[in-house]
Specification:
The complex is a heterodimer of chains A (about 300) and B (about 260). With about 300 residues, chain A is mostly helical. Chain A contains 10 helices and 4 strands; from the N terminus they run H-H-H-H-E-E-E-H-H-H-E-H-H-H. In chain A, strands 1-4 form a two-stranded antiparallel ribbon. Chain B has about 260 residues and is of the alpha/beta class. Chain B has a single domain, classed as P-loop containing nucleotide triphosphate hydrolases (Rossmann fold, 3-Layer(aba) Sandwich), CATH 3.40.50.300. The longest helix of chain B is centred in the C-terminal third of the chain and has 16 residues. At the A-B interface, helix 6 of A face helix 3 and helix 4 of B.
């Protein structure tokens, strides 16, 4: 029983991290049709900002958390302004290649000005403590991560449903030109999407830093690759799909790790991706493909 | 007749109209391009304040292209002036903010948003939220079906209801000129009659309208001035009375060349 609870929480927190990052990818894709592979470097930028702020300013973790989120929002909006705005309206591949290019440039900047080896930044480690609830021992970080993700999703839903900019973003996912014909500025909608994407990246960055305690140039790339898969399973462009895909992937990963015998541990990824392939045979557009005419409910 | 929505400028406009009919929209030598193809070959159209002007023609004549050029969604050359101000160099958003609103071809309502949210999008750039909400309530009163379905996804509405929503959305931006692109397309005769009844009401309220239609008889019935567009050029123009009931337009509107 204890084991089951611990592993469920484990699965939920993995899923939450994927869902946070996947949402960041999905919200930009739904509006611009851009798969933002530089999203991982936004996360890494948050990590490096934390190192710099930790060295120069303060070790107060709350201030650093706010700083990380602000840094990620800034990085995300700045990338849109510098790199993606110029290729707006070009076809999908151009955007994808731009995103890869930006990602490579940023990784190399981190290499040049940082270090290829991990740099310690341990101010968030305190989030990860073992709490004993009777006989059950759980990780506090996993609780925080799951709760934060749920709160972020609720806040995002509120924003998208109740504010004019949020409504414009949902409408733009269907017909961007018509949104502009209603007098809503395209730049505002897109900058808004990148800002939200950066905010979610910032939250993910806090939890990644709490777990790793160090930064590295490639630290964001792997989680974004997994989040990309989560988006594909959920249905690319669908926000509920990104959340569902993220959690499904987290749960599957943990389940596979538990169920596989120790000796076959190396096959975990192979099994997970085989399952992903099966899902895509069943639903080539993902589970919640953005059947837009039916109305994207988030 | 129920007023569709209060317009605080109506009285002021009537005063100006009495003085002199101002040119609302003036288009000269307009050429519209789709990629490398020139769809409209240099036309002149002018719409005076408070007028309803229709642009009639067969499929592919360039009617929708002309409207796209006015809203800024198609590439064009030539001059376009809104109340004397050049609008050719400004963005789609700014043209809407200057007072050009469109109920586009195919309606293009936001199917993934509720009926109410579609209307809110129409007034998205307005600051006077209280007035916007009361205008929306007037629309809901005018079309009870939209009121009943206010919280439903707009994609679930019928074609006629979607058309009414598209017109409401356009008007909620409080435009100076309303562009209507084939509002009667694909609708049942009773619904078409209802749409033209709305247009007549709007006209009675001195709203300036540029109407694109294939239903010539109905369009001429509500218009002050008529342009016939064929193969990207204006082949005839005149006051509505010059065209009678539109029966002699059959050849031009079916694209038959004699």
């Amino acid at each position: 029983m204890d084991y089951l609870i611990q592993q469920s929480l484990n699965a939920l927190s993995f899923g939450a991290e994927y869902a946070l990052i996947a949402l960041g990818l999905a919200i930009v894709f739904s509006i611009m049709g851009l798969v933002n592979f530089a999203h991982g470097e936004v996360i890494a930028f948050g990590g490096y900002s934390m190192v710099i702020m930790g060295t120069l300013l303060t070790n107060n973790p709350l201030v650093l958390m706010v700083g990380v989120v602000v840094a990620c929002v800034f990085a995300s909006v700045a990338l849109e302004r510098v790199a993606f705005r110029t290729v707006r309206g070009a076809d999908l591949t151009t955007g994808l290649l731009t995103a890869f290019g930006v990602s490579i440039i940023l990784q190399n900047l981190f290499l040049l000005f940082g270090s290829p080896r991990p740099i310690a930044a341990t101010q968030f480690i305190f989030l990860d403590q073992t709490i004993a609830l009777g006989s059950i021992r759980i990780s506090s970080l996993q609780v925080y991560e799951t709760l934060t993700t749920i709160l972020a999703i609720l806040a995002l839903m509120f924003f998208l449903r109740r504010t004019t900019l949020g409504m414009a973003m949902r409408a733009a996912a269907l017909d961007f030109e018509m949104v502009r014909l209603c007098g809503v500025r395209a730049n505002r909608v897109i900058a808004g999407a990148f800002a939200i994407s950066g905010l979610l990246a910032g939250l993910a960055c806090i939890f990644i830093m709490a777990r790793r305690g160090s930064v590295q140039p490639h630290m964001g790339f792997d989680p974004v690759l997994v989040a990309f898969v989560a988006c594909v399973i959920g249905g690319f462009g669908s926000l509920p799909g990104a959340v569902l895909g993220g959690f499904l992937l987290g749960i599957t990963e943990v389940a596979v790790l538990i169920l596989l015998p120790q000796s076959a541990g190396g096959l975990a990824h192979a099994v997970v991706f085989a399952l992903v392939a099966l899902v895509l045979i069943w639903r080539p557009d993902g589970i919640l493909s953005p059947a837009r005419e039916k109305g994207d409910k988030i | 007749m129920t007023p569709i929505c209060q317009d605080r400028t109506v009285r002021a406009r009537k005063a100006t109209l009495a003085a002199k009919k101002t040119r609302m929209l003036e288009i000269k030598q307009l050429k519209v391009f789709h990629g490398m193809i020139e769809a409209v070959h240099g036309i002149d159209v002018s719409v005076s304040e408070g007028q309803c002007v229709s642009l009639l023609g067969p499929n592919g004549a360039g009617k929708t292209s002309t409207l796209s050029a006015i809203t800024g969604t198609a590439r064009s050359t030539g001059s376009m002036r809104l109340l004397g101000e050049d609008i050719t160099q400004i963005s789609i958003e700014d043209r809407c903010r200057k007072g050009i609103a469109i109920s586009p071809e195919g309606r293009r309502i936001f199917g993934n948003l509720s009926v109410r949210d579609n209307m809110l999008m129409g007034g998205a750039m307005r600051k006077d939220r209280a007035a916007l909400l009361s205008e929306m309530d007037e629309w809901f009163g005018r079309f009870p079906i939209l009121g009943e379905r206010a919280e439903q996804m707009a994609g679930t509405l019928s074609g006629g209801e979607q058309q009414m929503l598209a017109i409401a959305r356009a008007l909620l931006s409080r435009p100076r000129i309303l562009l209507l692109d084939e509002p009667s397309l694909g609708l049942a005769p009773q619904i078409v009659a209802k749409i033209f009844e709305i247009i007549r009401e709007l006209k009675a309220r001195e709203i300036t309208i540029l109407l694109v239609e294939q239903n010539a008889a109905a369009a001429i019935g509500v218009s002050d001035k008529v342009y016939i567009l064929n193969n990207g050029v204006i082949t005839r123009q005149g006051t509505a009375s010059d065209f009678g009931d539109g029966s002699d337009l059959m050849d031009e509107l079916t694209g038959v060349h004699s």
